[in-house]
Structure formats: structure tokens, C-alpha cells
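User: These chains co-purify. Model them together.
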Amino acid sequence: MKKLNKSTQKLITTLAVIVVLYIVMSIMDGTGNLSSLMSGLLVPVCAYSLVAVGLNLCVGYLGELSLGHAGFMCVGAFTSAFFSKLFQDSIPDVPRFILALVIGTLMAALFGFLIAIPVLRLSGDYLAIVTLAFGEIIKNVINVLYVGVDSNGLHFSIKDQMSLGMEPTGKMLVNGAQGITGTPRQSTFTIAVLLLIIALIVTHNFVNSRTGRAVKAIRDNQIAAETVGLPVTKYKLVAFTISAAIAGVGGVLYAHNINSLTATTNNFGYNMSIMILVYVVLGGIGNFSGSVIAAVVLTMLPEMLRGLSTYRMLIYSIVLIVLMLFNWAPAILKWREEHGITTAAIVGKFKKTKEVR
Amino acid sequence: MGFLTYLVNGLSLGSVYALIALGYTMVYGIAKMLNFAHGDVIMIGAYVVFMCMSNSGMPAVVSIVISIVCCTALGMIIEKIAYKPLRKATNLAVLITAIGVSYFLQNMALMIFGSNPVSFTSVINWEGLSFADGALKITGNAIVTIITCVVIMIVLMWFVKNTKPGQAMRAVSEDKDAAVLMGINVNATISLTFAIGSGLAAIAGALLCSSYPSLTPYTGSMPGIKAFTAAVFGGIGSIPGALVGGLLLGIIEILARAYISSQLADAIVFAVLIIVLLVKPTGILGKQIKEKV
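Assistant: Joint model of the two components:
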């Protein structure tokens, strides 16, 4: 038998843990040992994990910070929910959900691609702020969008429900700030876990593929990568688009788990992007399994420790600052080396990129 | 006349953006980092003014001075604790830390002041001017805001151009290593930049909340991001650029709010940012920075 390399072994371990957790959770849920709060969190946890994996691909391997992944999640959520709602009566459940999933993912990928074309010409802080702007634009546009359907077809408006001019028998699909209500709740825990596993395998294969190695080379030293003839823009585009698509999958799951889908700051805005970023940083930049662990722990923990929830955001922010200082500040790194607290001892695997000045 | 009123309101809002953008642009020019927490320093500044005026009954000028002192100190502390250790680390690390600081300030304010909006009493007690039999009204807030902004801009440009610390700032922004060789204290210069930026944020906070009196812990984040947009628009690192970018952005926002859609105004402002970065990433008055190997 061929010996598996280290990262593949790690992936298999992670997948095994996820499967075991899935079985345990399913049994607990089935026998009624899980509080309704916890069982309600099962699908969102997977959705957040997916977005975190997507963002980690962008932050850890592309080396660019995106603050717009909540926006891609939002695109995936709304396009898929829109599709499901539109064909609620005309397509049977299973193929409809699969199609919704495909559409949500593709739309998120498309938006990722479109936004990446201008954005990836920039880098660093500019990229972060433009992705943030993109997320806000998406959120704002969805909040003023009214779409209805009647026998004449689709009606669009950005003013209000009345200006759609629909027949009385028409059905509202997207109702402005109230969003989409009555999306069929089809994201089960099984589907969510399955998608998460697929995403982990895809990202693992991607970062170890030829393209993935090229992306890493670009992250470590763009000028050197250009010098050896790598088409930098192309590889960046590919990585960013995949990253957005994975966030879109998370959005689809999220949308099909709740009854009324709205775009607010907390679920698809800046706050969500930051929360996902916390998962990525805490789990370890460039470590996909870490992102999943962080997402699971940080979502479940405040719910279990009721008292903590008030301080949750405050703790998140402190964790973010302390972790960044601990892992990146040159002085602290030196101190850690002297005292034997090296990177290997910590769950997160950080790869320090040396910047060319 | 409606258009003129919007224009004046736009100029007034733009002046506030310009003041905030100054903080971004100076820090960016010198420390080469995006101080994400800048918008939240504004919010803290506004809360300090609010506490002094409404809770302790101090006069407006005294409150603003206290707020400037607090924000200056806050800015320097943030720089010392969160940004200074990371000065030689990658941009990504600094950026994430800055986001963490921003988030920390917001949640700190949320714990101290609560999430309910407080209504901010205007620091300006002046009805304003009225032209053409009241058809065109210019509020005192707008006039004071615009004048304050222009005066600060002129003083700052003079400061950077003619004083020793100002020259040190320009030198550091040009080349940090060369500045050290010339005997400039880079750390002190960066601290000074943060101090000035944060002090201006306090003034901006008071002026912003005088025009838009609802103050919450999240008040600062949106204007902060928009002001960064303004700084990029005008050309990051350039002080007159911050003024031009801020004013243009303020006018665009108010006109979009009035003539297109109030809910889409933010989206339009951000679309402007993306277009600017696409067409001219260096901004209106920015200089082309060559990438060095």
C-alpha cells in the first residue's frame, strides 16, 4: 500500500472525527437527548464551518484578507432560497434542493469571480476594504429588492410591494427588508455534514494540487512567482472563486434551515464576516480542520455556558488581538523560541511569510 | 433651492468625512497600515462629549477638549499595545489585529453604554443662516463643520510642511529606514501621527453627532469605512486628497440619498469606491508608488 503523506493522514483523521461526531449527535438527537437549542444549531454550525473553510482558503493560502465572505454567503443563500421558492410547486423536493444548491454555489462563485477581477489587482488593505464594501452593497441591495411572480412572469422593483403591479393571485418571493419567507426547510444535518466533508476534501486536494502550490508560491512571494512565469492573476482568481463558492454552499445550507431569510448586519453583514474571521484565526490560518473545530466550539460554547453570551463578542475581539500578537509579533515570537513555546506546540499551524521590502 | 440645500448638507457631511479621512490617510501614509479602529475612536469621542455635556453639564468647548485628550490618549495606547509589536509583521497580521481592536472598542462601548441610542445634544448653539426668505436654510451645524474642517486642514498642511515633527512625518512616510539614519525617532513620529489622527477623530465625532444626533456603539463604524473610502478616493497619504475625497463623497452620498434611494445611498458610496479603485487606484491626488523588489 502506498504510504499516505502527512496532510492526507490529517485530513482522514479530521473526516473520521467529523463522522464520529455526526453519528453521536444524530443518535443523541434521535433519542431526544439534545436540547432543542443544540439541535437547532447543528445545521448553522456546519454552514459557518463551510464559510470559515472558504475564508481560510482565501486568508491562509491566497494570503489576502476578505471581509466580504458574509456577502458571498448572502448571495448563495438568497439565490438558492429564491430558486426554491420560485419552483416550490413545480419541481419535486430532492432535485429542487440539489438544483438550488448548485445555483447558490454557482452564483456565489460568479460573484466571487466578478468581484475578484478588479479586486485582485489590489492587495492587502485595499482588498479587505473592497470586499467589505461588496458585502455591504449586496446586503443593501437585497434589503430594497422586491420580487414577485404571477401568471405574467416575474416582477422586480426596488421601491415597495405595491409598485410591482402584480395580479392579486401573485406570490411575493423577495419582500424587501423582510427578505424571503417560507423557504422549504431542507437542510438536514446529514446533508450539512456531507457538504462539509466534500468541502474539506475539495480544499485539501486543491491546496495540494499544481494550482494550489502555485497559489502558495504567490502568497509567499508574488514577485518571485511572477519571475518564474506563473500567471499570478489567473491563480488568484481561481483560488478566490473557489473560496467564494464554498462560502456560497454555507449560505445555501443556512437559507434552507430557517423560515425567514433576511439580510441584517448580524447574519450577512460585517459582524458575520468578523465572526468567520475569528473562526479562521482561532483555528489556525491555513488549517482547514482548525476552522471547523473553532466554528463548532465557538458556536456551541456560548450556548452551553449561558452566562458567557453577554461577553461573547468582547471575548472574541480580545482573542483575536491576543492571538495575532502571540503568533505574529516578532518580539513575542523570539520570546517563545527562547522558552520553547514553539509553533508545533500549538494547534494552529502558522506559516510565516517573509515580505520582500 | 432644494439642490443647494442638499449641496450644503453634502459639504457638511463631507467635511466630517474629510476630518476622519485625515486620520486614516496620515496613519496609512506613515505606518502603512489601515487603522480599522479609527471609526470606533470617533464613537468613543462622541460618547465622551455626550457624557461631559449631558451628564455633567459642562460647556461644549470644554467637553470637546476633554474628548480630544481622551481620544488622543486612546489612539496612542492602541498603537502602543496592538500595533507597535506587529510593526515588522505582515500586513495581514496588522490588519486582523486592527479589526480586533475595532471590534473590541465597539463591544466595550456596548457593555458600558448599552445598545440603546442616546440622543446627542448638538455642540453648536446656532440657528444658522437663512437665504431667500427661508427657502434656503443653512444650519449652524453645517457652517461650523465646514469652517472647522477647512481651518484644521490648513493648519495641518502648514504643520506637516513647516515644522520639525511635520517634516519628520514626511520623512518617515517616504522611507522609514532612511529616516532612522537621519536621526529621526520613528516610533515617536508614528505615535504622534496616531495622536493627531485620534484627536481629529474626537472633533469629527462631536461634529458628526451634532448633525446626526443618534449615538450608538456602532455609530462610528460606517462613517469610518466611508471615510476610508474618501481617503482612497482622494489618494491615500495625501492631506488635500482627504479633503477633496471627503467633500466629494459627502456630496455624492447626500445627493444619492435625495434623488435615488435613501436605502441604496450606502451601496452607491461603496460602488464609487470600487469604481475609483478600478479606474485610478491611486485616487484623485495620490502619487504612484512603485513596487520595490
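Chain A touches chain B through 51 residues (CB under 8 Å).
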